[in-house]
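Box S1 | Example of a co-folding query
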Amino acid sequence: MMDWTDRHCRVFHRLMTRRGRLYTEMLTTGAIIHGDRGRLLGFDSSEHPVALQLGGSEARDLATAAKIGEDFGYDEINLNVGCPSDRVKDGRFGACLMAEPELVATGIAAMKRAVNIPVTVKCRIGIDDQDPELALDELARRVVAAGADALIVHARKAWLNGLSPKENRDIPPLDYDRVYRLKAALPDVPIIINGGIGSLAEAGQHLGHVDGVMLGRAAYQEPWRLLAADPELFGEAAPHATMKDVFAAMIPYIERELAHGTRLHSITRHFVGAFHGVPGARAFRRHLAENGVKPGAGVNVLGEATALVEDGAMASLAA
Ligand SMILES: Cc1cc2nc3c(=O)[nH]c(=O)nc-3n(C[C@H](O)[C@H](O)[C@H](O)COP(=O)(O)O)c2cc1C
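Box S1 (continued) | Returned holo structure for flavin mononucleotide
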């Protein structure tokens, strides 16, 4: 999620679920081809399986960027056909591509020729005055024919004329049934549902209809929920029993990053929602906010903040 997630966040999330698949924020083909690749694409080996999400529409650039991603070690390339931001609209990528399924399919075919890892699409159910019954089927069928390995569908339209990107994540109504019908129409294609899913219990209900669930804001803002993902959805033990254990496991990574010049706050900013509704959660947040930003802040700040939270509280809450 642009401006929210990064590789530090993904390392954190990976310590809570082995089975969840992690996605980068959208990176434009232009940035990948012309920018500082090490900074944009570098990731920690613990993050696997991790997908690189691309923004773009020009087939040759998509193929080049996908290949660069594969060479960096990503496990999947995902094309963004759902982002409604103005910047993106002007650049002819993101949700506006819902109106150009043929162009998207050409890009998918080019990426499939360029890489050996799965190529997937993340889209909306439609844009503006499109009829989602037609628009989603049309896009899905074309990209599948071009070789797309799976579709992630944010189950609402993007209204490109008039709503801000933020409003476009909340205001167009959710239509989960539309995504279920897509799955029924394409039974052999993995369909992952996204949008407004706030808990693992809700995720479990969707799994009765589709193959996977993507959590965006809930995963970022309430990361403690991820501790229950492997037990509840996969019947496997979580990598760590409590959030305190997650932070203990995070320390070697943080020390390595600090030694390379990363500022503590760049990592700990992702921990704001780690403890929810448990004694000490507020003190934890305040300690990190006040001390994590200080120049030269060390990993001890995280230890001090965690010590303010009651022991064992998260094990029960996560379940
Ligand atoms: C701050 C922010 C940044 C986002 N950036 C991206 C992005 O880079 N790529 C993408 O596919 N979706 C992006 N999204 C959309 C989410 O992936 C997701 O589709 C949307 O928030 C609905 O799912 P949710 O209700 O689970 O959050 C972003 C959402 C937010 C809140």
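Residues 243-259 form the longest helix (17 residues). The beta strands are 22-28, 50-55, 76-81, 119-124, 150-154, 191-194, 212-214.
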